[in-house]
């Protein structure tokens, strides 16, 4: 039997020969000798054209008719090329630079994908979030669409950088060429700004987000700032705040010590809580337990990295962001007063807040059966894992401190995106169909909202179980719970997804957060708190600045850092209590 292949039809064979010839000619063109300075110039021009779709699209939305935005687009294109040439001039050497050039193209490809997919901007805050992202969070952002988008940008420069021949040159000659290239880029940029300032100045002043869409200048600059800022911006000395902290008179008078559960939510929006008037009943468990819900609370930041240290700080948002030193936080002061403190985390870490108090990961307290039910293959667990083994964790705290009271902080995974569908158990999904992809723009808006609302319902169930646990401990402790989210989330409004926008540019959905409290009757009595008074103030405007002082007041911890004016509950406490 003859297994030889039949010859290709003449038309197909001709097409294949043409393609081979074309690829050979392109490869020969790629392999032509070229100086590193010309490589820097061509790579900059390529990235300006291919990796800046978010910038050009945003400019079109702002400018309206082409006649209005084309001059600005041309000026920004020149500035982009000049900026990249100036950076690459420092790498324009004949040896060992190909990997750096490829890395610049890879950064541009990745940044463009995330800017297009989630409508984020690459400012230093977003870069800091990226640097803090752990492997499990990063896995939620990966997929075949990412690979295809990156390859579309990287394929040509990868081929070119592998094939291009770079003639050798003396060191002094290379230095001269690089300085000339740098000077030329600076001169062209200066001339462009001078000639185009009439259009550019108002554009950049009114739309500052544009500067963080210039790719890869923005991600390179922002990453450098995020990485270097901690080393230069503040003193490494820790300013103590716990000196003189002491327990107030309610501790001596109470029959049982207090047990406060402070739940730090993740990515929760106040306007998606049923108890705040949302059109869906996403919070039936909280409603059933008669909680108090403050509906007008704003966050310190729009990301966990920005908000979490800020909300536990005694300084408040403005002073925290301008600080020159690091300060002890709420947990340090409570511990210094003599109470037991424990932080249990189901997130990517406490961002330094819990480093001086006992802390643990939720997953570490699970047995094999609990892990199989609550966690996926990557080790990411639903928030019910925070409640597993809490009695044992409590018993392991120092007895002397435990007898004075306990502050237990539970840090949720909450509504963390973009994989919202992972945050709720399959059997508990009340809102369907839901978005089941990390590429949120591919989902119908209703499906996206369904997936997000399922995460709020999961938080509701979790908080209900936490309250039940506190009630079960009522023979040993006077219990209370306070829940507050670190920041909100964008769900496609204004074309934005996720969070992390610069605070001044972020929509209210990224800053308007829920704050909920449950007070056991014995705890309210020992604190002389009037539930009716608290209920009357639920519409009062609050921020994360109030958290530090409200918790100190609720725990009856006396400290020089406490400010009664920022204690959201002070007006509902009997004078002298």
Can you describe what's shown?
The protein has helices at 10-30, 36-50, 53-63, 66-88, 98-118, 124-132, 135-140, 144-163, 171-206, 217-233, 249-253, 284-288, 304-311, 317-322, 330-336, 368-374, 390-395, 399-402, 445-472, 521-526, 531-536, 545-555; strands at 235-239, 246-247, 258-265, 292-298, 325-327, 340-345, 359-361, 406-411, 478-485, 490-491, 497-498, 512-519, 542-543, 557-558. The protein has 577 residues and is of the alpha/beta class. Strand 10 and strand 11 form a beta hairpin.
Q: What is the terminal separation in angstroms?
A: 100 Å
Overall strand count: 14
Tally of individual helices: 22
The average pLDDT value, as a whole number, equals: 90
The radius of gyration over CA amounts to 29 Å
Beta content: 5-15%
- Read across the widest sheet, the strand sequence of neighbours is 7-6-8-3-9-12-4-13
What summary fits the major beta sheet? 8 strands, mixed
Taken from the alpha-carbon principal axes, the silhouette is elongated
